[in-house]
Specification:
- With about 425 residues, the protein is of the alpha+beta class.
- Helix content is about 30%, strand content about 25%.
- The strands form 5 sheets. A 6-stranded mixed beta sheet has the order 1-2-6-3-7-18, covered by helices on one side.
- Helix 2 runs antiparallel to helix 3.
- The longest helix has 22 residues.
Length: about 425
C-alpha cells in the first residue's frame, strides 16, 4: 500500500535524478530520428537503460528498442515512439530543431512533445519502481518504437514476432498530464481515375484524368455532416489529403490521377462501408475506382509487415481498472486530474483497437504542438511524469485486487463494433 512516507521518498528519489532526466531528454532530441531512422536514438536509449540496470535490453526484428525490468506474472508495457516527423522548411525554425532551446522552463525541439518527452520518465520511472518495490507483480517493458508513418504497426509486429503480449499498456503520446482513454480511428483510401493522354495542343483527343476527379473531390468536401458522431470520440471526419498525376509531360493531357483520402472514423463506422460510400460517390464506371491502402514499406532493418491501412477507434470507460488506476495515481501525486482523448491517432489502434488490451495514455506535453516548429514540452512535467510512471504499477495492482478488478474489460473498439 502506498502511504505518505512512500510518496515523500518517491518525490525525493525522482528529484535527485532531475538533471539526468532533463539531460537525457535533450540528448535524444538532438539525435535525428525521422523517416523511421531510429537506430542512433535507440542506441542512446539503450545506454541509459543499461546504466539504470535493466534486466534485458534488445532490438526487435523491426528495429525497435526494448527494455525489460521486473519478473512478475503480469506484463505492463510503456509505449513511446521515438521516431519523429521531419523539420520541414528549416527557415521556419528560430532555433536549431535538434539542439533546441530551453526558455521559461520549456524545451523546444523536434520530438520534445511528439513524443520523446515521455521516454525519460518511462525509463527512469520503471527503474525507480523496481528499486522502491512499486513494480511487484509485474514484468515491465519499455518499447521505443516507430509510429509516425504507420501507427499500430510496431506493436502489432512486436506481439507477432517476439511473442510478448502485454496485459496492460500505457501510451506516451502527449496528454497534458491527464489520463487519456481513447480516440477515433481512421481508414486511408485512394481513388484512381484513368484517362487518355494526348498533346495539350490537341487536348480534345485526350481524356483528362484530373477533370474526372474534380466532381468527386467536390462531393467529398460536403459529406461530413452525414458522418457518424459519438458523445466521447466526436464527429467522424473526411479529408482529401494528397494528389498524384501521371502524364507524359506538362504539355500533355494526364492519363492517370490519384487522390488520397483520410477518413477519421468513430464507433459504428465500418471500413468496408466507408469504401462503399466512396464507390457510391464515384458511381458505376470502369475508369475510376476506390481502394483501401496497404502499407508494406520496409523498416530501416529491411523488416516488412504488410497491413491494410485500417485503424480502429477505441475507448475505455472511466471505471475500467486501468483508467481508474491511472486517475488514482495522478490524484495521489498531483491532487486531481481529468480524463480525455486524443484528436489524432496513436499505437492504441493496435493495443486496444485490435488486440483489446486495456490501455491508457499519460505523458507531458500538448498535442497541439506536435509536428509544428513550436514542438515543446514543459520540463517540470517531464520530471513530474517520472513519479507517475513509477507509482502507477503499484496503484494498478491494488486496483486489480479490488472486487471490480476482475470484471470484463469495458473497451469498445471499432474492430468489435
Amino acid at each position: 500500500m502506498v502511504n505518505q512516507a512512500m510518496l515523500d521518498r518517491l518525490r525525493v528519489r525522482v528529484d535527485g535524478d532531475r538533471d539526468s532526466i532533463i539531460s537525457f531528454l535533450r540528448e535524444i532530441c538532438a539525435i535525428p530520428s525521422y523517416e523511421n531512422q531510429i537506430r542512433a536514438c535507440g542506441e542512446r536509449i539503450a545506454e541509459e537503460m543499461a546504466k539504470l540496470g535493466y534486466d534485458e535490453i534488445f532490438w526487435d526484428q523491426m528495429g525497435n528498442i526494448v527494455g525489460k525490468v521486473g519478473d512478475g506474472d503480469k506484463i505492463l508495457l510503456y509505449d513511446s515512439h521515438i521516431d519523429t516527423v521531419g523539420v520541414g522548411d528549416p527557415d521556419e525554425w528560430q532555433w536549431d530543431p535538434f539542439e533546441g532551446k530551453i526558455e521559461d522552463g520549456v524545451l523546444y525541439a523536434r520530438g520534445a512533445c511528439d513524443e520523446k518527452g515521455s521516454t525519460p520518465g518511462m525509463i527512469y520511472g520503471l527503474a525507480i519502481a523496481r528499486e522502491m518495490g512499486l513494480l511487484d507483480g509485474f514484468s515491465a517493458y519499455y518499447f521505443g518504437n516507430m509510429e509516425e508513418w504507420n501507427d499500430g504497426q510496431a506493436p502489432h509486429a512486436f506481439v507477432q514476432t517476439e511473442g510478448i503480449k502485454p496485459d496492460f499498456v500505457v501510451i506516451g503520446e502527449p496528454t497534458k498530464m491527464q489520463i487519456y482513454r481513447g480516440h477515433k480511428g481512421r481508414v486511408e483510401f485512394k481513388i484512381v481515375a484513368k484517362g487518355r493522354s494526348a498533346h495539350a495542343a490537341s487536348n480534345y483527343l485526350g481524356d483528362n484524368a484530373i477533370y474526372k476527379l474534380l466532381p468527386i473531390i467536390e462531393r467529398i468536401s460536403h459529406i461530413e455532416p452525414q458522418l457518424g458522431d459519438h458523445d466521447f470520440l466526436g464527429q467522424g471526419r473526411i479529408t482529401v489529403t494528397d494528389m498524384e498525376v501521371k502524364t507524359p509531360s506538362i504539355n500533355a493531357v494526364p492519363d492517370e490521377a490519384i487522390i488520397y483520402v483520410d477518413r477519421r472514423i468513430t464507433f459504428g463506422e465500418e471500413p468496408q462501408a466507408e469504401l462503399e460510400r466512396l464507390q457510391n460517390i464515384i458511381g458505376q464506371r470502369d475508369d475510376i475506382h476506390a481502394e483501401i491502402l496497404l502499407y508494406d514499406e520496409p523498416s530501416y532493418t529491411g523488416f516488412v509487415f504488410p497491413l491494410d491501412k485500417i485503424y480502429p477507434a477505441w475507448a475505455f470507460e472511466e471505471d475500467e481498472p486501468i483508467v481508474a488506476a491511472g486517475l488514482r495515481a495522478a490524484e495521489t501525486l498531483y491532487g486531481q486530474t481529468d480524463t480525455g482523448k486524443w484528436d489524432f491517432s496513436t499505437n492504441g489502434i493496435y493495443w486496444a483497437g485490435k488486440a483489446g488490451i486495456p490501455s491508457i495514455g499519460f505523458a507531458p506535453g500538448n498535442e497541439i504542438h506536435a509536428h509544428t516548429v513550436l514542438d515543446q514540452v514543459p520540463l517540470a512535467d517531464v520530471v513530474r511524469s517520472t513519479e507517475w510512471y513509477a507509482l502507477f504499477p503499484s496503484i494498478l495492482l491494488n486496483t486489480l485486487q479490488e472486487p471490480q478488478g476482475g470484471s470484463e474489460s469495458s473497451c469498445r473498439a471499432q474492430a468489435k463494433s
